[in-house]
Amino acid sequence: MGIGHAAVGLGLKAADRRLNAGLLIFAAFFSDFLLGWFTLAGWESYEYPADYASVHYMLFTFPWSHGLLPILVWGASLGLLVWAFRRETRAAVIVGIAVVSHFVLDGLVHVKGLPIAGPGSWALGLGLWRNLPLELEIEAAMTVLALVLYLWPRATTLPAGESPWWSTWRC
Amino acid sequence: MVVYMAMLGAMAIVGQATATKPAGHNALIVNWITGPLVFAAIAWPLDRKKGSTP
Fold it and tell me: Which of A83, A86, A117, A143 could bridge to A121 as Cys pair (CB 3.0-4.6 Å)?
């Protein structure tokens, strides 16, 4: 998934208006950032299917950047980093959620699947890329929804000191 | 931000839908590493600008 990750990052801004959308977007793409480094190091790999020209998707072996357990660790790590700078648990949790969202979104679209617990473990991949028009429509809809959440007037017109309803939950 | 997301979305969607030739190894790695940084670096000042607008 591509723009869908940016959409999640942008949409999560609604959960805490003090967090910069740039940080949330980076967090939502963090697994791809790691994929680049891990592929460079030779720890992860990819392949093009023979019919790539017609299917338009790649196949990945990326247990460390995209596996569920590793992503939970990456999410916790980035969340802890944010907490170290801001001392705000909610902000840290939101950044962690942005990181982990990558597994959920990619799990929907990838054909080969994302491993749950590392190399050789069971993999989750619903293969929505096999129906690319539908997948791209979903990403476009996610982008529109994210922009609505981002621009939603209520949160920006609240009186000073008043929090939006979704910020009443505590971590 | 609306224009930025629209452009980013159009590029991503059209790019994937029309991709027929495999990208090179180095190009992929550069994209994976720099993409998130660039996306975030563009969004950051746009969001700050929005935040400072009354």
Answer: A117
